[in-house]
Design brief:
five-stranded mixed β-sheet; 2 domains; three-stranded parallel β-sheet; globular; 15 strands; D-Maltodextrin-Binding Protein, domain 2; 13 helices
Length: 351
């Protein structure tokens, strides 16, 4: 009898040790410990700390009066609206490309909303958890109109400015290798230096996401003196990201983005959201939190989606406000149209 209890006791001890090791293993990896319970931390600090660029008009830009604007900024505001019913409950942290992922992993920011491309490496080894794409882009090349350069092949043995540590630098190398074109890379840690060097004539072209090229061109004294070549070098799906390891917080950010897309599909806008309160459409009732209270499973108020639309608008409104035909950028929506209008914007069902 004594031997039996000893065996059981030893078995129990081994099981506890294995369970402890398994738990520790599941929680390992960059960002995991800092991400744990992020929703509760954000709620307790009563604001969302959002990592942005702050230097890219149309996406995230801060003016001389310290006012923030742009599509990426509005995603931050939408998250704050969902959590606090207040789109201004945001603390913006300008980050450059080199420091952005570290800021997420260490918990310096709660979410990264900074024209960041979703890639396999960033999803796995860098340990980012990406929300839905908010802008489908592609890499391009800008040159001076007077240069006579028309295609990438014309850049044979030419100097090209870009930012190091980005997908742009790698895509450029891949594309030129594919075309068997020799070129002189001129790389900078700071994208501002890359564009400054291009403007000063230190390189013949500058490469980045096409949307960024359009945005930066508007800041030049003579925007029409610069052209963007027709060739698109890559796919650049830009999406917000959070630290891997906290599925609840990732779900919150993911479904806030989805809410902006779904609202546009349903025809719910910032100025008419209240008129849908008595709709008999069950899809709309669920979306607005009148039925099923879907927000509760996320740890949010049942009307979180209605809050997003009321304070920030649907995806189409956000796009038009920052990038649309009434802005300096005037970027055609193209792939960023809704799925039922020939684009790629698509939200899973709210049910």
């Amino acid at each position: 009898m004594v031997r039996r209890f000893s065996f059981l006791g030893a078995s129990l001890l081994v099981a506890l040790i294995l369970a402890s090791c398994s738990s520790a293993s599941n929680q390992s990896g960059p960002g995991t410990a800092n991400a744990e319970g992020r929703l509760q931390k954000v709620l307790s600090q009563k604001k969302v700390r959002c990592g942005i660029s702050g230097e890219l008009p149309g996406f995230s830009f801060v003016d001389e009066q310290s006012n923030y604007s742009g599509l990426d900024v509005d995603i931050c505001r939408a998250i704050a609206a969902a959590l606090f019913d207040d789109p201004n409950a945001v603390e913006y942290r300008p980050l450059n490309a080199k420091e952005r992922f570290t800021a997420v992993q260490t918990g310096e920011v709660d979410v990264l909303s900074r024209n960041t491309t979703w890639t396999l490496d960033r999803d796995s080894s860098v340990r980012m958890a990406f929300a839905p794409v908010v802008f489908y882009d592609g890499q391009g090349m800008m040159v001076k109109a007077e240069s006579g350069l028309k295609t990438l092949k014309d850049l044979q043995n030419r100097a090209i400015c870009t930012q190091t540590g980005t997908t742009n630098e790698k895509n450029l190398a891949d594309q030129m290798r594919k075309l068997q074109i020799s070129y002189k890379p001129v790389v900078f840690d700071d994208i501002n230096l890359a564009f400054s060097a291009y403007a000063e004539g230190r390189c013949d072209g500058v490469t980045s996401d096409r949307s960024q090229l359009v945005s930066r061109r508007t800041a030049f004294p003579k925007p029409d003196s610069h052209i963007i070549l027709d060739e698109v070098m890559s796919k650049e799906p830009l999406a917000p990201a959070v630290a891997d390891g906290d599925s609840q917080w990732a779900d919150v950010v993911r479904w806030v983005v989805n809410a902006t897309i779904e609202a546009e599909e349903l025809g719910i806008k910032q100025n008419n959201v209240d008129t849908f309160a008595n709709s008999e459409d069950p899809v709309i009732q669920r979306f607005l939190g009148k039925e099923d209270e879907l927000g509760k499973s996320l740890g949010l108020s049942p009307d979180f989606a209605a809050r997003v639309v009321k304070h920030v608008g649907n995806y189409g409104e956000i796009y038009d406000r920052n990038l649309g035909p009434k802005t300096k950028l005037n970027l055609p929506r193209g792939q960023n149209q809704l799925w039922n209008q020939g684009g790629l914007m698509y939200s899973p069902p709210f049910r």
